[in-house]
């Protein structure tokens, strides 16, 4: 299977993720990304699911970025559905970048927001 992407594709793109988290274990996240069209995977561990995912992404992309903040807003709709908005702010080389993403899954939204910011500075 050819995993090459076209030139117009972003440098970093989510393929898949799996998270294992609980109140008595450290969070573990398996993240698979396309980096310049090549599929890469890393397993991250941390205190919570989002931090484990961000750690795994950082190991894959290998950019020298500083996370200033991330925010996840979850809104309930009248029909019972939820919508999520994630915003991530990073710094690299003295410049600030902001990534955003919307979706129905909070963790996926923060992953895509982080990748949006990394694609701007990478």
What's the helix count?
2
Task: Return the CATH topology.
Answer: Double Stranded RNA Binding Domain
Distance between the termini: 26 Å
- Give the averaged pLDDT, no decimals: 92
Name given to the CATH homologous superfamily? Alpha-isopropylmalate synthase LeuA, regulatory domain
Q: Structural class from helices and strands? A: alpha+beta
Strand content: over 45%
Q: Percent of residues in helical segments?
A: 10-25%
| Biggest beta-sheet profile | 3 strands, antiparallel
> Count the strands?
6
If strands are numbered along the chain, what order do they take across the biggest sheet? 1-2-3
Walk me through this protein's architecture.
This protein has a three-stranded antiparallel sheet with strand order 1-2-3. The chain has helices at residues 49-61, 106-121; strands at residues 12-20, 27-35, 38-46, 66-76, 82-92, 95-103. The protein has 122 residues and is α+β, with helices and mostly antiparallel strands. The longest helix has 16 residues, at 106-121. The chain is globular, with a radius of gyration of 15 Å. The protein has a single domain, classed as 2-Layer Sandwich (Double Stranded RNA Binding Domain), CATH 3.30.160.270. This is 2-isopropylmalate synthase LeuA allosteric (dimerisation) domain-containing protein. Keywords: Transferase.
SSE layout and pairing:
Layout: E1 12-20, E2 27-35, E3 38-46, H1 49-61, E4 66-76, E5 82-92, E6 95-103, H2 106-121
Antiparallel strand pairs: 1-2, 2-3, 4-5, 5-6
Helix pairs in contact: 1-2
